[in-house]
Amino acid sequence: MWLFPGDPDPLAIRPTVAVIADERGSVIVDAGQSPAHAREIRAGLAAAGLPAPRWLVYTHHHWDHVWGACAWPEVEIVGHEAGVAPLRAEARRPWSHRHLRETVRAEPRLGPSYRARALAVDSWDGFAVLPPTRTFTDELTLPTGVRLRHVGGRHASDSTVVLVPDSQVLLLGDCWYPPPAHLRGPAEGPDLAMAAGLLTDDVRWYVSAHDAPLSLAEARAALTG
To answer: What Gene3D superfamilies does the record point to (predicted)?
Structure first.
């Protein structure tokens, strides 16, 4: 398994992307937060000599996890069915820097997210928001043995965790994070009960999208400390 680490600056909103390389066809987990980000990941894959992905898995529908998908035209996009409707709605919006500015003027609470989007996208030529082309409801195992499980939660209704059995890695996306800032109440924090429920001796490493990977021991200590 190969990780393209996220940006440690929280204002960048640039998550970690994972690739599970396999001779049967590689799986990329999350698309990158822009076509430019996806192109960096492509270059990294080529430099590492890893096979191109055949499947792209969305951990959830938020922009920073899906906006790079249009730069992966050859892959099958897999996501939970609850993400289809919001992504179709996003796909109909007239994305441009002008649209971002006008939306923030109308809804100032969206400012941090929309400013990050404006910085992420260098060109809107060919840009598109893509819903999944293959959906599931509860669990799905890809031909490579990678397992997807819907966990939902307050961050996103379609949150999905991705288990890589051979590596004993669980990719968490943002599933245990609080709701996005513009939807978050003043007392809402991380979903620690969900995080604790995902701990198991069958997993050695836990990888969240905006934090450093944690070993099982580190994750247990973080939740009990």
So the answer is: Ribonuclease Z/Hydroxyacylglutathione hydrolase-like
The hierarchical CATH code for the domain 2-224 is 3.60.15.10
Over the stretch 42-51, which tens digit does the pLDDT of each residue have? 999 999 999 8
Residue ranges of domains in the chain: 2-224
Measured between alpha carbons, how far is 207 from 209 in angstroms, rounded to an integer? 7
pLDDT tens sequence across 147-164:
999 999 999 999 999 999
SS (H, E, C) 154-176: CCCCCCEEEEECCCCEEEEECCC
β pairing state of 169-173 and 205-208: parallel
Q: Identify the DSSP state of 87.
A: H
pLDDT the model gives residue 224? 85
DSSP-derived 3-state class of residue 222: helix
**Strands laid side by side in the 160-164 sheet:** 139-141, 147-150, 160-164, 169-173, 205-208, 214-215
Would you say 44 and 18 are in contact if contact means Cβ atoms under 8 Å apart? no
Which residue, among 101, 102, 79, 99, has the nearest Cα to 90 in the 3D structure?
Answer: 99
pTM: 0.95
- Residue 172, token pair as written in the block: 């968490």
- The angle at the Cα of 13, spanning 8 to 17, to the nearest 5 degrees, equals 75
